[in-house]
Amino acid sequence: MDSIHVTGNGPLNGEIPIAGAKNACLTLMPATLLSDEPLILTNAPRLSDIRTMSMLLESLGCEITPNADGTVQELRTAQITNHKAEYDIVRKMRASILVLGPMLARDGQATVSLPGGCAIGARPVDLHLRALEAMGAELDLRDGYVHATARGGLRGGTFEFPIVSVGATENALMAATLAKGTTVLKNAAREPEIVDLALCLSRMGAQIDGAGTDTITVQGVDRLHGATHAVVTDRIELGTYMLAPAICGGRVLLKGGRRDLVSAFCVKLEEAGIGIEETPDGLVVERKGNRVRPVNVVTEPFPGFPTDLQAQMMALLCTADGTSVLEERIFENRFMHAPELTRMGARIDVQGGTATVQGVDRLRGAPVMATDLRASVSLILAALAAEGETVVNRVYHLDRGYEQVEQKLSACGAKIERVKAA
Ligand code: UD1
Question: CATH topology for 3-18+233-419?
Answer without folding.
Answer: UDP-n-acetylglucosamine1-carboxyvinyl-transferase; Chain (3.65.10)
